[in-house]
Write a structure and sequence with these properties.
This protein has 448 residues and is α+β, with helices and mostly antiparallel strands. It has 11 helices and 13 strands.
Length: 448
């Protein structure tokens, strides 16, 4: 079981040991390749004041030296292999209208970015990663490393990663779709639509609205009980403060919202996501469930020292943390659902990117607080002359991040299968999205 030596950030799933993962563990093996997918189509003043923090996970059970040496050798061979480039045909499509990420022209700038990206991930000891970056109608997909450090199977464009809390952004979009269709009022108590057994004895929690969930002002804890515990649906929710009065990040709020929308729709969450998001935005590799535990495309999470974690099988959906997807799928979602606002009225889309809560954590003030607010389902960073929408994901062994400029459409999606993922975020953002202080990353590191 891992030990966290620093309470540096909110974890979507507090369980870090295989024993705490209930019936969700099984072995997965994958194969792939390093490479760059090229597609056509689609300041530091703040940083000096903020000390970066990190959550260290140290395994209790030592491995033999020979096993460590073998794993390191396999990983090194995979990371040092020659990158392969593959191309998609644009087939005469208009880059401004093409809904998929298509190949862009190669060049020295792309090659230099690829080399710098590889260097950053190797330096941080990250076994595998996917990155998709879109700017000025052009997209690039970068692939790095291995799915599993023990097997040496390499990452491909089809490799699936746990998106962790990037799952919540999908829930936000679905909620706004329901609101636009008149199926739910963002400012009406969820209790009006479904009498959750978890809130029936909590008068404060019965006043929680969808808007409060999306802007994290529900007053609920991040998790009342481990989200992987089957007892979660019968565990009463306790409020820390009156809903709507201040910010406190909460996975429980999103799970309560999910159950309410399922009741309204008469559908499971994964089926609802397939209908509203996955099929709509060309996301064939995305699911809130682990549909095939032995699927060789699934990446394995890794501890900080590179030890692969026991595989986790998501036996039921939780829109706060169980999305499994690819960077390509998620980039399609970011571009079409968030940037273009497909399926939403312009006024509804704009609510996502307008401050709805100040995102200040009263129990842990952060020098980044003045630069951060929360919209409906996404974080908002105002710094260096532009606004970025963003979210981070933090499951054991998997770290993820996305950023989107809502005004230009520039976006970046990064998935890693390592506890070390956050160590690369700022360097990667500067490499692809330009120099800047990126206080959102310092805000993340300051969360409890």
């Amino acid at each position: 079981m891992g030990r966290c030596a620093s309470a540096g950030r909110i974890r979507e799933n507090p369980d870090s040991s295989p024993a705490a993962q209930d019936s969700r563990s099984s072995g997965l093996v994958s194969s792939g390749h390093d490479g760059v997918r090229r597609g056509q189509r689609s300041s530091c003043r703040h940083e000096a004041a903020i000390a970066m923090q990190s959550c260290r996970h140290v395994p209790d059970t030592p491995r033999g030296n020979m096993r460590i040496q073998i794993r390191a050798a396999v990983l090194s061979m995979a990371l040092l292999s020659t990158a392969a480039c593959s191309h998609l045909s644009a087939q005469g499509a208009d880059p401004a209208k093409d809904e998929r990420i298509q190949p862009a022209a190669s060049g020295n700038e792309r090659a230099a970015r690829h080399a710098a990206f590889e260097d950053a991930l190797r330096a941080a000891g990250i076994p595998g990663a996917q990155l998709v970056h879109l700017r000025h109608g052009e997209g690039e997909t970068y692939l790095h490393g291995v799915l599993n450090a023990d097997t040496g199977a390499r990452v491909t464009e089809q490799t699936t990663f746990q998106a962790a809390s990037l799952s919540k952004v999908v829930a936000a979009y679905i909620t706004l779709r329901f609101a636009a269709a008149g199926k739910i009022d963002l400012d009406a108590p969820l209790w009006n639509y479904w009498h959750s057994p978890r809130t029936k004895d909590n008068a404060l929690a019965r006043g929680i609205t969808a808007r409060m969930v999306l802007n994290h002002t529900t007053g609920l804890p991040n998790w009342q009980i481990s989200p992987s515990n089957p007892a979660i649906d019968g565990t009463p929710l306790e409020s820390s403060f009156a809903p709507g009065t201040r910010f406190a990040y909460s996975g429980e709020g999103f799970y309560l919202l999910q159950r309410t929308l399922e009741h309204i729709a008469g559908s499971s969450w994964d089926a609802l996501a397939e209908q509203e998001v996955f099929s709509r935005f060309d996301m064939p590799s995305s699911s809130f469930l682990t549909k095939h535990a032995s699927d060789p495309r699934n990446a394995s999470g890794h501890e900080q020292d590179g030890t692969p974690r026991a595989e986790r099988v998501f036996a039921w959906e939780n829109t706060a943390w169980t999305l499994v997807t690819t960077a390509r799928d998620y980039a399609n979602f970011i571009q079409r659902a968030l940037y273009k606002g497909e399926g939403l009225e312009p006024a509804t889309r704009s609510m996502m990117f307008s401050p709805s809560s100040n995102a200040d954590n009263a129990s842990s003030p952060n020098p980044a607080d003045p630069f951060i607010a929360w919209g409906l389902g996404v974080g908002l960073q105002d710094a260096d002359g532009r606004r970025l929408a963003w979210h981070w994901g933090d499951n054991p062994g998997f770290k993820a991040f996305f950023a989107l400029d809502p005004s230009t459409g520039e976006s970046l999606v990064l998935f890693t299968n390592s506890e070390n993922g956050p160590a690369t975020y700022k360097q990667v953002l500067r490499l692809f999205m330009g120099d800047g202080s990126y206080p959102a990353l310092d805000w993340i590191n300051g969360q409890e």
